Each structure stands twice: as structure tokens, then as C-alpha cells.
Q: What sequence folds into this?
């Protein structure tokens, strides 16, 4: 028999099989920080796209992808991890290239506007890496696919009642 301190905590009332940690919400700082970052980053990318070049469709796609990752993180969908994993190198390359181009074209600090732009790119890259690490760390929380559960909800509940009763309802 395992010592008492090695056993998982069980809920005292009505918690058959549930642990104490499962009863609380799974949206910790490890999920909220990437959610907010991807949402703000998506708006930043879309604003950059709208202000500077409407023909840069890759910025439109990356901005929309960032907003989709934020929405999927908010719903704790497992697709947030995969889309975040796929878009991370694209976002990293895009912003590193934009920073390199800006620094080579105008330098680090020729005026306040360029310095703010370069600073925003550096802050974006640092927060992107931090959010990606949090996303990878909390990937076990993203275990459900709420979108697919909603799409298949009524059909799966009908098949469950058929298998329980032994005949179609």
C-alpha cells in the first residue's frame, strides 16, 4: 500500500474518480499568456498588413492564423497546439526578417518612430518564443477537441444510447 502522501487527492463529496486538480479550470497562466499574445499579435500583424501593404497576403494569412490559434487556445482545443507548432517558425522567420530589413535599411535608432518599430519587433519575437514555450509546456491541457465534439455530439449520443439499450431508439 502506497503512503498517504503519494496518493492523488480525491474530492470529498461526489467526486467519484475525479481528482482535485481536475475540478479546477485548466486555463492557467500557461494558457492565458499565449492566448492573449496570439490575439494581440494577430491584431498587430493585421494592422501592419493594413497600414503598409495590402498585397502582402502572407501577413494576412499569418494574422488570421494567430487569431485562430488564440481562439483555439481559449477553447482548449488540441488544434491550438498543432497550429501554434506550425506557425511558430513562420512567424519567427517573418518578424526576424522584418527586423533585419529595418535595421539594415534605417539602423537601430535613427528617429523615434523607427526605434519604436524596431522595439516592437524585438518585443514580439521575445514574447513569441516565450508563448511558444508555454504552449509546448501546457500541451497536455489541450486534450479535447471541442469543435469536433460539438459537430459529432448528437450523433455520438444516439449511438451511445443504442449500444446501451441494445436496439435503436
A:
Amino acid at each position: 500500500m502506497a503512503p498517504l502522501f503519494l496518493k492523488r487527492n480525491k474530492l470529498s463529496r461526489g467526486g467519484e474518480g475525479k481528482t482535485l486538480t481536475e475540478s479546477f479550470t485548466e486555463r492557467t497562466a500557461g494558457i492565458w499568456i499565449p492566448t492573449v499574445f496570439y490575439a494581440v499579435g494577430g491584431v498587430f500583424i493585421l494592422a501592419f498588413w493594413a497600414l503598409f501593404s495590402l498585397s502582402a497576403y502572407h501577413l494576412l494569412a499569418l494574422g488570421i492564423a494567430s487569431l485562430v490559434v488564440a481562439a483555439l487556445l481559449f477553447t482548449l482545443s488540441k488544434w491550438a497546439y498543432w497550429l501554434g507548432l506550425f506557425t511558430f517558425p513562420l512567424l519567427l522567420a517573418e518578424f526576424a526578417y522584418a527586423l533585419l530589413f529595418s535595421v539594415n535599411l534605417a539602423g537601430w535608432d535613427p528617429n523615434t518612430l523607427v526605434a519604436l518599430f524596431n522595439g516592437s519587433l524585438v518585443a514580439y519575437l521575445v514574447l513569441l518564443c516565450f508563448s511558444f514555450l508555454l504552449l509546448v509546456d501546457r500541451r497536455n491541457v489541450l486534450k479535447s477537441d471541442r469543435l469536433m465534439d460539438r459537430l459529432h455530439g448528437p450523433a455520438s449520443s444516439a449511438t451511445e444510447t443504442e449500444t446501451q439499450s441494445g436496439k435503436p431508439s
Q: What stands out?
A: The helical segments are 20-23, 29-52, 57-74, 78-106, 112-137, 146-151, 153-165.
